[in-house]
Every structure is written in C-alpha cells, then in structure tokens.
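#struct-pred

JT: dropping the chains for the assembly here, can someone run the whole complex?
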Amino acid sequence: MSTVGRFRRERGDRLSNGMVGFLLTVPALLLLAGVVCYPLVSGLVTSLFKQSLVLPGRSFVGLANFRSVLAGDFWPALGHTLVFTVCTTAASFALGFGLALALNVGLRGRSVLRGLFLFPWVLPSVVVSFLWLWIFNANYGVLNGLLMKLHLIGDPVAWLGQPGTAMLAVIVAKTWNSFPWMMVMLLAGLQTVPRDLHEVAALDGAGAVRRFRAVTLPHLRPMIGMVLLLEMIWNFQHFDTIYVMTGGGPAGATTTFAVSVYDTAFKGFDLGSAGAIGALWMLILSILVVGYVWLSERRSA
Amino acid sequence: MSAATATPRRTATRRVASAAARRRGRGGRVGAVVAVVVIGCFGLLPVYWLLVTAFSPTGDVFAFPPHLVPRHLTLSHFDNLLHTPKLLRYLLNSVVVSLITAALSVIVSAYCGYSFAKFRYAGRRSLMYLVLASQMFPQALLLITIYLVFSATGLLNSYLALVLSFTTFTLPLCIWMLKGFFDTIPDELIEAARMDGAPTRTIIHRIMMPIAAPGLIAAGLFAFIRGWNDFIFALTLAGPDRQTLPPGLVNTYVGEFQTAWPDLMAASLVTSLPVVIAFVVLQRHLVAGLASGAVKG
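RK: done, full complex below.
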C-alpha cells in the first residue's frame, strides 16, 4: 500500500464514522449472541444443575452430573467420536488429495470433473444417509449384491447390525460426503504452486517424487494444515449422518458426543447430564485444536 | 509481478522442461487417469444408484442380486410422492423457510460485511474472528437452550424459530464472503460519492449494494442451500406441520416395517434437486469462497 493511501486513510477521508460502522453489524451480532453465545454459556451452566427438559425448575447439584457422566456414557462416546473423527478425516484427506493431485496433472475437462465430483458434498446430509443406508442394506443392498457376485462373501452381511461394520458404514458415508471439499481446497492450493520451481527442479534432475516432497508439499503445508483442522472439528461435532443411519446403535456402538448429548437431552430429558457431556466434549475439542496448532507451529518453526 | 522481464527466460526454461516432462509425463498421466477413475467411481456410482433406484419399478428394486443396469424405467415413485400430502406440506415448509432464511441472511450479512470491509473502528478485527469462531461450537449443545427459550416464548413449531436458527448459522460464511466482495470495490468510489455530498445511507444502498449484486446472490444461494439441508434444528424445533423435508423424510420413511426404498430414493432426489441447481449456479463463487476458508454447508 502506498504512503499516500495510508495517509489518506488515517486522515479519515475513508468513512470515518466508526459508530455507523458498528451499528451496521448489530443485527448480525444480536443473532449470534442470541442463538450461539447465550445458548453456549447457558448450556454449560446447566451442567451444574439437575434439570428436566419437560418439567419446570432446577436444583444446583455441583459436579454430580460430571461424576455420573464420567462413570458412564463419557468414555465410550469419547472412543467412538475419536474413531469416527480420525478415520473420516484421514480417509477424506487421502481421497481428496489423491484426486486433487490427479486433476492437477492437467487432464482435459478438469473444471467439469471438479464440478461433477462436488455433487456428494452439496447433497443434503439426510439424503447422503439414506443413500448409504440403501447401499448397505442387508437384504437388497447393492453392496452385498456386488460382493456376492464377485464371490467375496458367501452370505449377505448385516452391515448396520453389527458394531464394527456399523461404524465402518457411517465412516464411509461421511467420507463420501466430505472428500470433495478436501479435493477442491487442495486443488486450489496446488494451483498456487509456482510452475517455475517445478521446472527448475526438473531441469536439475529431480524426479516426480522428489519434486513432490521438495516443492509441492512445502508450498501446500499451510493449506493442508487448515483443511485437516477444519475437517477434524466438523467431524468431531458431526450429528446428521450418524443419527439417521444408526441412531447411535447398534448397542450404542456409534454413539458419538453429538448423538449422546442429543439423546440425553431430547430423549432422556436429562439436561444436566447433557450439559456435562457437552462441556467435556468442548474441553476435549479445545485440547485437540490447541494441541494440533501447537504441533503444526512447532513443526514449521 | 514483473512479468515483462521474466518472460523470455521463463519460456526458454519451459520449453526445455516440457520436453523433459513429456518424456517422463506419460507414467504420471496414466496414474492420474487411474486415480480419477477409481476415486470417481466411489464418488459418482452412489449417485448413479440413487437415480437407478428412483426410476426403476418396485419389483426390479427389490430383486436380489440387484440389476446394475436398469431394465425398465418408471415415474411411478414420483407419482406416489405427489399423492403423499404430508410430503407436499414438508416441501412447502422447506421452500418458505429456506427462502426467508436466504433473504434475511443476505440483508444481515451485507450490512455486517460492508461494515467489516469499509469501516475502521476499535474491536473490528475481534468481532470478525468472533463471527468466524461461532461456527465451531457444537450445535447439539446449543440446541438445549435454544429449545428451552423457544419453548418458553411459544415459538416452538413456528417458521420463525427455524428461520432464526438457520440464518444465524449461515452468517459466518455469508459475512466473510461479502466482506471479501466489498474489499474488492475501490474506496475511491465511496470518496467520490462523499465529495458529491451523498450520505452514507445513499452510498450503501444506491452505489455499493448494486455493485455487489453478484456477491449478494451468491451469499443468498449459499444461505438457501444451508437452510434447505439443515437437519438437527428442523428436527428438534418444529413439529410435523412446520417441519422441513430432511426431518420430514425421516419421519415419513424411517421406522416403517418395510422401508419403501424406491419412494424414498425418489423423494431424496426431489429433495436434492433445488440445492443441486443452486450449486450449479453458485459453483464459481462457491469455489472461490471455499478457498477463502470459512465454510461448511
């Protein structure tokens, strides 16, 4: 920015009236305060009370909710949330990055392909869930049909009826839904890698793998860090696909924090316990995010 | 960038390098095509299966092993949808709520985005990041209090409850998207109008908003998609007569003794169509907005 521009700005020729500026943000801030900030604080406070969704009144119980939650639902929910988050994030990153690298080679019709591959991402999450429920269906599902045709399985598998395969099914569905976003972001990142650097490296005799590690990856690292972090946060909080596909079952095997809080509050009517799980959930997420940022900054330093 | 001086050397480099790339490139290209085909199958075959199921006669849908290529096509499942009155009700609710959400979201985030882009005041940057951070909180937790508040004020099961909650969660992206848009409009325009004595109100409404129209449309389409796709708020805050399509489909088809899969796939297709159309219109802006890094649908 030129000195003249900066000077002009400081003198305040540019809209100087800060009060007007602030007033313009008020509607947005009111909505965010009412629908996000207040409910967040209030939800966390609820964890210290015994309170029902349907009955009026509440009584202060201190940390009793946390004690009962930590003795029960918390640990399985933590395990399921971590498995779901790590597997979904890793799988969608692998597929998204692979596709981005492949499309970046300069295939004909790249932008058309990119648009086409984004479809799974734009579909309503409920539709994604129904579609994969149908594919994984034990009696008529196309997956069982294909696997039996290929003689990989002898009898139909009840994918959603067993703990391990049910988790696998929701991970596959969510990965299908998320990897296109990864692909778009990483492809955008790849296109900012300077061609000249690649060419110079190629002239110096660096092979494709070497150039990928020495040129592409360092350029892409901030973008990779950001998409992994965002995807991790979103998967950690994901609700829709799991709730529609399994409802947290079978036998609680896919009950993540989101499903657990929802069921405790809106099916068990126990707002205190729901608030306690929610508070622990946010605590773990904060630890993960801070740890992630700390690790990635230490690595880049 | 000083393109003029660099160009001759760069083209020379490129010529040599592309010869080298050609020698080596064939293996890479084959690998790329294989990767696109394999990942593409994972990405697109489920969509194919959605279409096949929605357009096949019921007998074919429940054949096992399934017919991978449809033998007959039919529109009968779509006809069934038309004869399910509650689905039409959900559709109407979805249209009403998503359109109002889009309109409200554009108005609120246009002013806020404009303020972030063109005004300077204390706390502006903190507010910007606060707006961005607000999408990071778990919605299931927020929902507890939101439900209690709407319940106490008698707003449960109203369009207003849905519109308010949908709109709020579109704001982070829409505000940042529109801020980016206003950033690209030169300040000189504002200064010139100011010299001519135009008040701020006129500058905003008569000059800036018309210029930003493509951005406003993009933000509106995004908000529409977000509202249309929402599940958890619509499921919890609305009863059957105000519910939108996503929870409506769950209520209609899940938990039946035998799920009517072809009808459900046809309904899923209908539910997806508006967002797919909005997305095709929006794609160019959305990809740019995505890359600016504040998104999730």
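JT: nice. The longest helix of chain B spans residues 3-55. Chain B has two domains: 3-61, 76-292.
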